[in-house]
Amino acid sequence: MTLQPPNPLVLSVRDLHVAFGETTAVQGLSFDIHRGETLALVGESGSGKSATALSILRLIEREGGQITRGSIRLEGDRPDEITTLSAAALRALRGDRVAMVFQEPMTSLNPVMKIGAQISETLSLHLGLRGQAARDAARAALERVKVPEPELRLDQYPHELSGGLRQRVMIAMALTCEPELLIADEPTTALDVTTQAGILQLIASLQAKMGMAVLFITHDLGVVSEIADRVVVLKDGLKVEEGYTAEIFSVPRAAYTRELMAASPRLGEGAPLPLKKPETVLQLSGLTTTYGGGLFASHSAVAAVRDVSITLGRGETLGLVGESGCGKSTLARSIMRLVDPSKGHIDLLGTHIEGLSRAALKPHRRSIQMVFQDPYASLNPRMSIGDAVTEPAFIAGMVTSSDRKALALALLVRVGLPTDCVARYPHQFSGGQRQRICIARALSVEPQIIVADEAVSALDVSNARRITDLMADIQNSDGVSMLFISHDIAVVERVSHRIAIMLNGEIVETGPTDCVLNDPQHPYTKRLLSAVPRLDRIGA
């Protein structure tokens, strides 16, 4: 390939070392970013990606880390050595010359401040705007990132916006001062494919207009292939490979890069063959779940799930796919009777459970268990792992207090965790390990059905692959049925015998996975598939 002369240098990182106490997070990292360039930092959880990003803004100290050696130099007309800047100089730099967009906008936005006030705060700090001038500039910032009805959004709170809109607000705030460098730390990981495509396109178009450099941090190699000019691959805080995206993805030199690519799901790799008329273990008939409404409600009722009818066979995995807000999680919670459906039937192993009282439902709960997206939020931080994984079995009366440890040890072995961690607590494990713990907990009552609600969406590609392989092994050995909910169509393809596509609370298409994905009939299914980032598009 013909290499163009690089644009002016924006950021230079040299021999960066970052530590958290006695633990080294980044070791001797060096890289450059030029004006108008997108550099992707790629690696698994714990590789040092986010520690590097936080170090560039000197936010690492707030997280208990420390830059122990090296240089982080912001170039241009006003060169600065970031590692030696005073607190006041850092406040002036953050949001002005360097801005950051984080993975989860709900935790980055102030939940008790309106959107307009939060954007105006940045405008006031860096540009000195006040009052109506700040509000006008805030509205213009929302218009720039294509937020619909920007005047209305200024007076809304973060919880009133969808995940995609919240991320657009974060980008609007980051770009108010037209920074020289935008750091995007996993900004699309939790988003569905169409929302993700919109955010990536937005960042690219704004970058082209403003000429800013972008440091894009992700574990999604499909996203990297679509947006990055160059790639730096990190493993355990060390740079193992660096180069132009097309070159690295065509001929990766490092074994670790090859491992990452092998673990990345690719649409079109094929799905498990459909099972031949398996016994039905779960059948939904005309299921509808409604939120709101009622005599004293301030809003009319909204049907989050509308007239859904699906079946799940013994030993089968049904993949459920759709955008954020389509009703996937509400459907899962309705099946589990964590919310009550307003009409329709849930036939669980021959029993209609939709109208059962809490007491009558209890003996049926051990038949169907759930694994949630965020394992840390679904584990009690004060409960040891041994107690956590055996709690469902203990509540169900399947094990006595004296037998819990033996069961815990057996479950940990089952999910590939060392038995000496039985007395440890959730914060002492990685994200992938915590998800294994949640699977072990679900298995403690020997369920016949597992509902996995975005169970791997927050994990890096290697951990996600290990978890889905584990679930497949459990299914093959125990004949467990699974409802696998995800916005990642490539992952769904790999694990699902059949697939159901959900839009606005309704199932719009269903069938054997290969049939639906290779010959989609519904326009929405076609739109979803066209939005999936794909490694095979590299260089196209």
UniProtKB/TrEMBL annotation:
<keyword id="KW-1003">Cell membrane</keyword>
<keyword id="KW-1278">Translocase</keyword>
<dbReference type="InterPro" id="IPR027417">
    <property type="entry name" value="P-loop_NTPase"/>
</dbReference>
<dbReference type="Pfam" id="PF00005">
    <property type="entry name" value="ABC_tran"/>
</dbReference>
<dbReference type="GO" id="GO:0005886">
    <property type="term" value="C:plasma membrane"/>
</dbReference>
<keyword id="KW-0472">Membrane</keyword>
<dbReference type="Pfam" id="PF08352">
    <property type="entry name" value="oligo_HPY"/>
</dbReference>
<dbReference type="InterPro" id="IPR017871">
    <property type="entry name" value="ABC_transporter-like_CS"/>
</dbReference>
<comment type="function">
    <text>Part of the ABC transporter complex GsiABCD involved in glutathione import. Responsible for energy coupling to the transport system.</text>
</comment>
<keyword id="KW-0997">Cell inner membrane</keyword>
<keyword id="KW-0067">ATP-binding</keyword>
<dbReference type="InterPro" id="IPR013563">
    <property type="entry name" value="Oligopep_ABC_C"/>
</dbReference>
<dbReference type="GO" id="GO:0016887">
    <property type="term" value="F:ATP hydrolysis activity"/>
</dbReference>
<dbReference type="GO" id="GO:0015833">
    <property type="term" value="P:peptide transport"/>
</dbReference>
<dbReference type="GO" id="GO:0055085">
    <property type="term" value="P:transmembrane transport"/>
</dbReference>
<keyword id="KW-0614">Plasmid</keyword>
<keyword id="KW-0547">Nucleotide-binding</keyword>
<keyword id="KW-0813">Transport</keyword>
<dbReference type="InterPro" id="IPR003439">
    <property type="entry name" value="ABC_transporter-like_ATP-bd"/>
</dbReference>
<dbReference type="GO" id="GO:0005524">
    <property type="term" value="F:ATP binding"/>
</dbReference>
<keyword id="KW-0677">Repeat</keyword>
<keyword id="KW-0378">Hydrolase</keyword>
<comment type="subunit">
    <text>The complex is composed of two ATP-binding proteins (GsiA), two transmembrane proteins (GsiC and GsiD) and a solute-binding protein (GsiB).</text>
</comment>
<feature type="domain" description="ABC transporter">
    <location>
        <begin position="282"/>
        <end position="529"/>
    </location>
</feature>
<dbReference type="InterPro" id="IPR050319">
    <property type="entry name" value="ABC_transp_ATP-bind"/>
</dbReference>
<dbReference type="InterPro" id="IPR003593">
    <property type="entry name" value="AAA+_ATPase"/>
</dbReference>
<feature type="domain" description="ABC transporter">
    <location>
        <begin position="11"/>
        <end position="261"/>
    </location>
</feature>
<protein>
    <recommendedName>
        <fullName>Glutathione import ATP-binding protein GsiA</fullName>
        <ecNumber>7.4.2.10</ecNumber>
    </recommendedName>
</protein>
<comment type="similarity">
    <text>Belongs to the ABC transporter superfamily. Glutathione importer (TC 3.A.1.5.11) family.</text>
</comment>
